[in-house]
Amino acid sequence: MAMNLGRSGGVYIPPFKLARLMKEIDDKSSVDYQRMTWDALRKSINGLVNKVNATNIKNIIPELFAENLIRGRGLFCRSCMKSQMASPGFTDVFAALVAVVNTKFPEVGDLLLRRITLQYQRAYKRNDKSQLLAAVKFIAHLVNQQVVHELIALELLTSLLEKPTDDSVEVAVGFVTECGSMLQDLSSRGLHGIFERFRGILHEGEIDKRVQFLIEGLFALRKAKFHGYPAVRPELDLVEQEDQLTHEVSLLDEIDTEIALDVFKPDLQFLENEKKYEELKKQILGEESEDEADSEGELEDEEDEESDEEDEEQMKIKDETETNLVNLRRTIYLTIMSSVDFEEAGHKLLKIKLEPGQEMELCIMLLECCSQERTYLRYYGLLGQRFCMINKVHQENFEKCFVQQYSMIHRLETNKLRNVAKFFAHLLGTDALPWHVLAYIWLTEEDTTSSSRIFIKILFQELSEHLGIRLLNERLSDPTMQDCFDSIFPKDNPKNTRFAINFFTSIGLGGITENLREYLKNMPRLIMQQQKPVSESDDELGGASTVSDASGSESKSGSSSTDTSETNSDDRRRKKRRRN
Question: Residue 171: which domain range?
Answer without folding.
Answer: 97-252
